[in-house]
Design brief:
Oligomer: single chain
CATH class: Mainly Beta
Helix content: 10-25%
CATH topology: OB fold (Dihydrolipoamide Acetyltransferase, E2P)
Strand order of the largest sheet: 5-4-3-7-6
Order of helices and strands: HEEEEEHEEEEEH
Number of domains: 1
Shape: globular
Radius of gyration: 17 Å
Strand content: 25-35%
Length: 148
């Protein structure tokens, strides 16, 4: 259960939010991700040109060698950042579903489970990624929570 308490402070210069809970609690992690300051674009490159890609356009991000490939419905961009550093800046609608893959939950069209894998398909795209077995249940729970 989550308890919310608002403490009025007429002398406060800015609002602050404190979350008290266990570090391993997924609700705490989700609240932290939702409340963290985020950007609306991601700086990426394509053929030597730097682009500022809106986060809403990203389907998924995956590692390829020493760089990140940022996939949209129509293109693939490159970033030199590390996946772990990038995850810290992404908003709550992004989720890591495998060691080298982060998806945009708002772009998920379908999840197909089989005995050996879980494929994630995206809106207006033929592209798909695979979620690791340990991330399937959290993925489905996050999708259910977002949709309803």
């Amino acid at each position: 259960m989550i308890r919310v308490e608002v403490i009025p402070d007429p002398e406060a210069q800015e609002a602050s939010v404190v979350i008290r809970g266990r570090a391993d609690d997924p609700v705490v992690a989700q609240l932290q991700a939702l409340l963290a300051p985020t950007t609306t674009t991601l700086s990426v490159t394509q053929r030597g040109t730097e682009h500022f890609l809106p986060l809403a356009d990203i389907l998924f991000i995956e590692t390829e060698g020493r760089q990140l490939q940022v996939h949209t419905a129509t293109a693939i961009y490159v970033s030199r950042r590390t996946l772990s550093a990038l995850i810290q800046t992404l908003p709550g609608n992004f989720m890591q579903v495998a060691k080298s893959t982060v998806i945009n939950l708002d772009q998920v069209a379908a999840v197909t489970r089989s005995l050996s894998s879980c494929a994630v398909a995206f809106r207006q795209s033929h592209k798909q990624v695979f979620a690791s077995r340990r991330n399937v249940k959290p993925l489905l729970a996050r999708l259910d929570a977002r949709r309803g």
